[in-house]
Amino acid sequence: MLPGAVPWPPEAAARYRAAGYWQGRTFGAMLREVAAAHPARTAVVAGETRWTYAELDERADRLAAGLRRIGVAPRDRVVVQLPNVAEFLQVAFALFRLGAIPVFALPAHRATEIGYFLEHADAAAYVIPDRHANFDYRTLAREVKARRVVVAGEAEEFTALTDLDAGAPAALPDPDPADVALMQLSGGTTGTPKLIPRTHDDYLYSVVASAEICGLTPDSVYLCALPVAHNFPMSSPGVLGTLSAGATVVLAPVPSPDAAFPLIERERVTITGLVPPLALVWLAAAPATAHDLSSLRILQVGGAKFSAEAAARVRPVLGCDVQQVFGMAEGLVNYTRPNDPEDVRVTTQGRPISPADEVRVVDDADRDVAPGATGHLLTRGPYTIRGYYRAPEHNAAAFTADGFYRTGDVVRRTAGGNLVVEGRAKDQINRGGEKIAAEEVENHLLAHPAVHDAAVVAVPDPMLGERTCAFVILRPAAREDPPKAAHLRAFLRGRGIADYKIPDRVVLADAFPHTGVGKVSKRDLRAAVARELTRPAAPER
Ligand code: OOB
User: Fold this and answer.
1) Is the pTM of this model over 0.90?
2) Is 236 in the pocket of ligand 1 (CB under 6 A)?
3) Which residues form the AMP-binding enzyme C-terminal domain (predicted)?
């Protein structure tokens, strides 16, 4: 196992192997097998690009050899920040084949986040598009210190992906299936995001089992509308599950109905996954669309709580089944099953993938609550990590001594064994599926010379579920001429962080309410925003 990653105890690993969950197969080998069985089937469609399985397989091999030539070695970490383009899959499989480890950043990440990933993972390379969504990633690459930069598109002074893809494929030894295949990012609750190492054995198990749960066959067509780097569209069953089933991946550049509905019609899409706010947008747009959406069988919704009211509208409006997906990049994924009764699919967030997933619902002292009662969700299993990468101190708090991951989610389990998400105990904002660690944004605010203290909390929002509100106490010297909210936002942007982390509201405060032990009471602050929101709106400063 890669140093810095936490292995499963040998006894658990042996059990997962003996039970057949861990198959000793790598992602590179999986693609090889599917390509041999269905060489001419379409693997991926993105814009005008269409690659068969044979083509994707060959492109992955050629790029693996090209990356090896410029010095990327097995176990090297490579930060990959690509949008929904076909090259995403080529790069991912090239790295899997090489045994190098992609660290999947989101297109929204900026210099501070990328700089941190490069440094924390000690990355050998950084892979970017030239431009995407009005942003030039080469400018970002110049800001951060990357050892090598590979560009999908116009490379300027960097290395062009097409140049690496030009030579002959080399025969590379298959990496160890028990070793780390990739790293996902944690939504996080701390000042710095955490990296989640996933092995071939564990991730491939979750991906193949997810494809099975969703009934994928070689005739399925999966539309990847969310950013492919995120764990949900990547693996639940996502693009990797789709490829494992020999089916077709369609990558949408953006998830709006304008972009997605024509693709559903043209490619006869059968399944897609959305976060709740997008599902609401689709539900609003579908009745008036001229596009034929009748091929759609399953609309997955996950990443944040989807209300029962909205879930109940999916079949009448879109003519397909809703599937709720409650997962986390750390591992555990719960699904409602396609043949579950309608009320289970509408009112619950489903049950775990695996019979070997252990789920506990506990009180504040880690004691199991009574059946059906609400408590903290702890989990352990064949595809849930035992630790974040290079984070021993954080791991001691984030996992129990016997290896359960503390999800920070507050849930209850129904008599039928399905989970219902009731809330959250972690200091995180879930902004329509995008996770924001309060502490991270607070630290950036504290860097402003006028800011004495800052507390970031969630505010309920009918569309996004939650938005962010930053409470700020100014230093006495700054109170005469206080900075405007827009100025503080611009300051945060200037710190090089993803746009979704910029607070939606900034409220100046004189003091923060405190809990009994002297910590800032976020609960009272949330109540304060709720009161503020019910007052007639004052113009924001
Ligand atoms: C997915 O993964 P992450 O790592 O971005 O976020 C995980 C957290 C969960 O701990 C929970 O707080 C929240 O997101 N969450 C949900 C939810 N799905 C995720 N909360 C309520 N209802 C749901 N359906 O978000 C993710 C990973 C794989 C599949 C699906 C989602």
Assistant:
1) yes
2) yes
3) 440-519
